[in-house]
Amino acid sequence: MKNWLNVSDLHDFSIHNLPYGVFMDGDTPSICMAIGDDILNLRKAAALGIFDGLNIDTSVFQSEILNDFISTGKASWSAFRAFIQNALCDENSAIYANREALLTPQEGAKMLLPLHIGDYTDFYSSIEHATNVGKMFRDPANALLPNWRHIPVGYHGRASSIVVSGTDIKRPSGQTLPPDATAPVYGPTKRLDFELEMAFVVGKSTELGDQVSTTDAEDHIFGMTVFNDWSARDIQKWEYVPLGPFLAKNFASTISPWIVTMEALEPFRCESVKQDPEVLPYLKYEGDKNFDINLEVDLTPEGKSAATICKSNFKYMYWNMAQQLAHHTVNGCNINVGDMMASGTISGKDENSYGSMLELCWGGKKDIALNDGETRKFILDGDTITMRAFCENDSVRVGFGESIGKIVG
Predict the structure, then answer these.
(1) Claim to verify: residue 245 and residue 147 sit in the same structural domain
(2) For residue 409, how many other CB atoms are within 10 A of its CB?
């Protein structure tokens, strides 16, 4: 699509993407879209009356978060996205006429958390990751627990500690049980890790008692973002029995600032992993429910150059988003607009595609090579973790931006 900004179709934020975010416009949080290297200020455009002809309550663009806009529904999302695409291709449009007031360079812009995230669930849906962890900590011959191939395993996380890319992360402290010790000690984690994940944003609420089918699940999903579920592995090992993750996970998770819509991801649908044994009827689905999303992780020591330590892909997920949402609601659990559902660590079959340092260093037994002869097993103070995601074919690219976090002591 030829646009008057001359943004390439192969740019992360091409006209085929148009992800939503919130940035600080002076002293005002403003809902926006990314187009090329610029930010399109939707709050200002609404104030100028540019959206008055649309069948949408334009007051939603005066909010400081995306939840009100998302609540307008799937038909509104689609119509609004098409309106913006057309306007960016038309030099007679009101957006073109007001382009100097509405466009801000992304470089240097302060991005904010784009949503009110009322609830957050973390799944455990990569069979390669679950198998790797099972081999390290349980029986290599029976790495997966008996329920894993039957249900999308997950747990309820802490929404209050989800932060936007660029936020420094303080190294967490807690109880650990040192090797050969008989009693726990308190102190900073010595095994700080990332988890390479994607997350989807709930776009349609349900009532308590309602179930969402795999057929209807995508009507309840607004879009996706990159998600780093920071993990303190030594704290986790001591605390997770019998109730699962707690302090090892709830200290922080970092998301990219942009929410990419499901409509933008439509050209990148792909077949899901074959599931064996056959799932129960409420988890069955038809069609392609997974997406070909390339994933990368860089580790940058303080003052040094970045090293790419992982390349994976969202298509490796054993349980897809439709199944995750169907399972989440099968007991009648209600969901709300803005809720976030993370995929769990995304690992592939190749060692270079493992989505956590725990796997890359195989529980501390191997060194992870960086640049200039440096190595890591786990994350040190001063290290920065950068995650990025993008879809790409011969003619179109759709990117998610970056999830960046620096560890401070």
Answers:
(1) yes
(2) 8
Residue ending a domain, choose from 56, 88, 112:
112
End-to-end Cα spacing for the chain: 47
Mean pLDDT of 312-336: 98
pLDDT tens sequence across 129-171: 999 999 998 889 999 999 999 999 999 999 999 999 999 999 9
Under DSSP, the state recorded for 17 is T
**Residues 299-322: pLDDT tens digits?**
999 999 999 999 999 999 999 999
Give the whole-angstrom CA distance, residue 62 versus residue 267. Answer: 31
Residue 405 φ/ψ region, left for φ over 0, alpha for ψ in the -120 to 50 degree band, beta for the rest: beta
Provide the pLDDT for residue 292.
98
Number of domains in the chain: 2
Cα–Cα distance measured from residue 195 to residue 185, given in angstroms and rounded to the nearest whole number: 25
pLDDT in tens, 58-105: 999 999 999 999 999 999 999 999 999 999 999 999 999 999 999 999
Q: Given phi > 0 = left and psi -120 to 50 = alpha, else beta, which region is 123?
A: beta
CA distances from 152 to 214, 289, 325, 361 (A): 13, 15, 9, 26
DSSP labels for 127-161?
HHHHHHHHHHHS-GGG-S-TTTTTS--EEE--GGG
- pLDDT of 36 above 90: yes
Q: Is residue 43 part of a domain?
A: yes
| Mean pLDDT to the nearest integer, 312-337 | 98
Whole-prediction pTM: 0.97
Whether the pLDDT of residue 1 is over 90: the answer is no
Q: Exposed, middle or buried, 251 (CB in 10 Å: 0-12/13-18/19+)? A: buried
C-alpha–C-alpha distance, residues 250 and 229, integer Å: 9
Whole domain around residue 204: which residue ranges?
Answer: 120-408
Ranges of beta strands (E only) in 36-177 are: 38-41, 103-105, 111-112, 120-123, 154-156, 162-164, 169-170, 173-176
Both 128 and 179 in a single domain?
yes
Residue 7 lies in a domain: no
Residues with catalytic roles = 129
* Torsion angle in degrees (nearest 10) through CA of 228, 369, 408, 192: 60
User: According to DSSP H, which parts of 155-254 are helical?
Assistant: 233-239
